[in-house]
Amino acid sequence: MYKVENAKKKKLFEEIHLHLLEDQRPSEYLSTILLEPLFSEYPFSMIKNLTKAEQSPVHHPEGNAWKHTLLVVDEAARRRKDSKEGEVFMWAALLHDIGKPVTTRVRKGKITSYDHDRVGAKMSKEFLSFFSCEENFIEKVSALVRYHMHILYIVKDLSFGNIKDMKENTDVNELALLGLCDRLGRLKPDREIEEENIKLFLNKVQNRR
After folding, report:
1. Domain region containing 44
2. What residues does the HD/PDEase domain cover (predicted)?
3. How much is the pTM?
4. Which residue from 102, 143, 200, 204 lies 20 to 30 Å from 49 (Cα-Cα)?
């Protein structure tokens, strides 16, 4: 039974992979599998739990982390051709907030998800390792998940950022592309401002060691 279940899960993983790489709007397929029983089982449940992660209505008027992720994935699909490694990029887009369900709290009346980037990096490794993905692929996806919040940290000069580690562990241009999709994956984003913020991020990174 264990082998049969894993075979079914492997097939679903491969289907998700195909839609991430080929669809113009992967969100349409992802929405159809949301209610499939298999998607509620481990490790897919790590993704489905995004539906339970509420977000600040100020920063995320689109709603929970699942709705945000669908918008990010579609934005990433529109920019797939700009990525050097489309498979890594698209899986990072899908998994970038996987750590939110376990880190989301209401603090002083505000919804927060502190350290979801760090937690998400570990969870993305766990998720992809279940399917015996190549180690190099897992590490690259995990690194993009780990550092995706650095766009905000560096643009706003926050102390949480570690430029040295970020540059050692990621392709900064790939991270910037993911960060742009993350920022645009919201309701009615100001595209001009977000694109300027990405330029500012790259400029600051290039001018620091």
Report:
1. 2-206
2. 61-196
3. 0.96
4. 143
